[in-house]
Design goal:
Arc Repressor Mutant, subunit A; 2 domains; globular; Rna Polymerase Sigma Factor, Chain: A; 0% strand; mainly alpha; 11 helices
């Protein structure tokens, strides 16, 4: 016996029920708490601090490595100190400000403390992400040829590592971490005017370093304009 197809009315009822169920699920979906809400909850229940750690451990780990931390283990140590210090001083956080800027500032300070304590010079290893960074700012550096989009990894690493820390910090926060001038000023504890100056001079210095000892392909390209 042939299977009987549902009537149009039955079909539309079933579809309507499914659509209504999906809409109900959307309404019932609980939005993620904001940073400020997690801070307030942590002050009442310390276990809620795990939410902030989970939210920031990955971006802050990348940030520490990009500042020049030599190994992943060292970066973990820096982050451990960062999250501990942030937790201890959580009551001092001004809820009217951005928590991300506050935690980035602590991370930055702890990283600088690590460099001083260990007496090491930050060394940047350019990953695929770091190389992609140069593609993003090539127009601003006037490095627009297709040739320069394939700068050798060693060349990129050397240029970043030779860049003065004050310039590297500003460029890193602006282009890698995508922070606003106001956020960078909060993180580095400097005026916004100084941020603009550091970024402008940092871009110029980076350009100089990239053409100082250019890769063979890059050198050929520049020689055409001599």
């Amino acid at each position: 016996m042939a299977e009987r197809m549902p009537s149009g009315r039955t079909y539309h009822k079933a579809v309507s029920k499914e659509v209504m169920g999906a809409e109900r699920e959307k309404k019932e979906a609980v939005p993620l708490p904001t940073d400020q809400e997690l801070v307030a909850e942590t002050l009442k229940d310390p276990e809620r601090y795990a939410g902030l750690v989970e939210r920031y451990k990955t971006p802050l780990s990348r940030y520490v490595m990009r500042l020049g931390c030599p190994t992943q283990d060292d970066a973990k140590d820096v982050l451990q100190e960062t999250f501990l210090k942030a937790y201890v001083n959580l009551r001092d956080f001004d809820g009217r400000l951005k928590f991300s800027s506050w935690i980035y500032r602590i991370t930055h300070n702890e990283t600088m403390n690590f460099f001083r304590k260990e007496k090491i010079r930050p060394r940047v290893a350019a990953s695929k992400e770091e190389l992609a960074f140069f593609e993003e700012i090539q127009d601003e550096l006037d490095l627009v040829s297709e040739v320069e989009k394939t700068l050798e990894r060693e060349h990129v690493e050397r240029a970043i590592s030779e860049l003065d820390m004050k310039y590297r910090e500003a460029l890193l926060l602006k282009f890698w971490e995508e922070k606003s001038y106001e956020e960078i000023a909060d993180i580095l504890h400097i005026p916004m005017g100084t941020v603009a100056t550091l970024i402008a001079r940092g871009k110029q210095r980076l350009k100089e370093l990239l053409i100082k000892e250019p890769a063979v392909e890059t050198k050929k390209w520049y020689e055409r304009f001599k």
